[in-house]
UniProtKB/TrEMBL annotation:
Taxonomic lineage from the root: Bacteria, Pseudomonadati, Pseudomonadota, Alphaproteobacteria, Hyphomonadales
Coiled-coil region list: none
Gene Ontology biological-process annotations: proteolysis
Protein name: Membrane dipeptidase
Pfam families listed in its UniProt record: Peptidase_M19
Record carries keyword RNA-binding: no
Gene3D superfamilies, per database record: L27 domain, Metal-dependent hydrolases
Organism, scientific name: Hyphomonas oceanitis SCH89
PANTHER family tied to this protein: DIPEPTIDASE, MICROSOMAL DIPEPTIDASE
Annotated signal sequence range: 1-20
Keywords: Signal
Domain of life from the UniProt record: Bacteria
InterPro entries: Metal_Hydrolase, Pept_M19
Length: 418
């Protein structure tokens, strides 16, 4: 019996040895790291200074078409926004500075109201692709539907004349950011680039009322183009932090339009945000060729005393055509993507990623070699990742900081009547 049992045990051991051993577990697949383009595509990307509405009245411009890019003036349309991952931003009502008299104020007001209406009309014509935004919460909701975000702003409050009630008029028309001044001093404030004797040393008494009214309504105040003393006054007076919607830094290029490190820290310490522009003339010294300068001088004589924004349609069209002719014959010198990054990186070094953003001045003269239109925006994300900034930091730069500030301004506004 012992022999039989042993034989059975031996046969069992042989059978077990012939069974296949369990296959080793497959190692879990490791996800490939996301590319810069993929990271960019996942972000909410907003720009705080789109001068694109200036193109809405042009017969050969179509916001839905992939228009031929023209550096500084034709850089934003739906196809380019899609390629560049731009979800939208602040679309600007801009009126150049003119004489400060009742007739000029009225003409400028009508021009600004027309421009504001053109923004509304563009959105109404393409409801499947664009949507007006009014609050800080609207941006993410609109972008999630695949539409582009259309906030509205005013660059230069000159067309308000001396009627502070016009601030509320534009608020009711959807404007959520307002800048008191542009290239020259006006009735509200001193400009950074009006190099004559400043009129007020900062805000005028009417400018003080403008800031108070913006605070009451819940409009962000934009200190871009304002003199340093005006920015100081706004910070001191405003009940909420301020925005610089499109600016450069003096440490990289000492231009009156740019902001120095001390004032940049003051804006940031107050909770404000500095949005970096890509306007070549504020990024570095750019010298036009003698031929271009001569042509510009002749044009200046021809249109002396005429503001394109308030001129009749025929004069405005002639002005634009002349400028385009000069640009085609004698191209303007251009700054570079590397110089733009130098400005942005310096701002980030001084005040950190909680207080910096993007306001490139698209279609208003912005754009550089290597970032000619908004389709190139993923390059910015790629460069910031290469500098060591986290995805969280970069999301703040692209929209988080601006929307946080906007929410603060909304929360501080006076209660709206029922």
């Amino acid at each position: 019996m012992k022999i039989a049992i042993t034989s059975v045990l031996a046969l069992a051991l042989v059978a077990c040895s012939q069974q296949k051993a369990p296959a080793p577990a497959e190692p879990e697949a490791v996800a490939a790291p996301k590319t810069a383009a993929e990271i960019h595509d996942e972000m909410l990307v907003l720009d705080t200074h789109l001068d694109t509405p200036a193109n809405f009245s042009k017969a050969d411009f179509d916001i839905m078409a992939d228009n031929p890019s023209v550096l500084g003036s034709v850089q934003v349309d739906l196809p380019k926004m899609n390629r560049g991952g731009l979800d939208g931003g602040f679309w600007v009502t801009f009126t150049p500075q003119g004489p400060m008299d009742p007739a000029s104020y009225e003409a400028a007001k009508q021009a600004a109201l027309t421009r504001n209406q053109e923004i509304h009309d563009m959105v109404a014509a393409h409801p499947e692709s664009f949507e007006l935004a009014y609050t800080s919460e609207d941006a993410a909701r609109i972008a999630a539907t695949g539409k582009k975000v259309v906030y509205m702003s005013i660059e230069n409050s000159y067309p308000l004349g001396t009627d502070i009630g016009m601030v509320e008029e534009f608020y009711n028309r959807g404007v959520r950011m307002i800048g008191p001044v542009h290239f020259r001093d006006n009735q509200f404030a001193d400009s950074a680039t009006d190099l004559g004797a400043n009129d007020y040393g900062g805000l005028s008494p009417l400018g003080v009322e403008l800031i108070k009214e913006a605070n009451r309504l819940g409009m962000m105040v934009d200190g871009s183009h304002a003199s340093d003393s005006t920015v100081d006054d706004i910070i001191e007076l405003s009940t909420t932090p301020i925005m610089l919607s499109h600016t450069g830094v003096k440490a990289v290029y000492d231009h009156p339009r740019n902001i120095d490190d001390d004032l940049m820290r003051k804006v940031a310490d107050d909770g404000g945000v500095i949005q970096i522009n890509a306007y070549g003339g504020y990024l570095e010294q750019l010298t036009p060729t003698p031929e271009r300068q001569a042509a510009l001088d002749e044009m200046q004589k021809e249109f002396e005393g005429i503001s394109p924004a308030t001129a009749d349609a025929e004069t405005r069209d002639r002005y634009i055509a002349k400028m385009e002719e000069i640009d085609a014959q004698f191209p303007a010198p251009r700054s570079t993507f590397e110089k733009f990054l130098e400005h942005m990186n310096h701002a980030l070094e001084v005040v950190g990623p909680d207080h910096v953003g993007m306001g490139a001045d698209w279609d208003g003269g912005g754009g550089v070699v290597g970032m000619e239109d908004v389709s190139f925006l993923p390059r910015v994300t790629e460069a910031l990742l290469a500098e060591g900034y986290s995805e969280e930091d970069i999301q703040k730069i692209w929209s988080g900081n601006m929307l946080k500030l906007m929410k603060q301004v909304e929360d501080a506004a006076a209660p709206k009547p029922e």
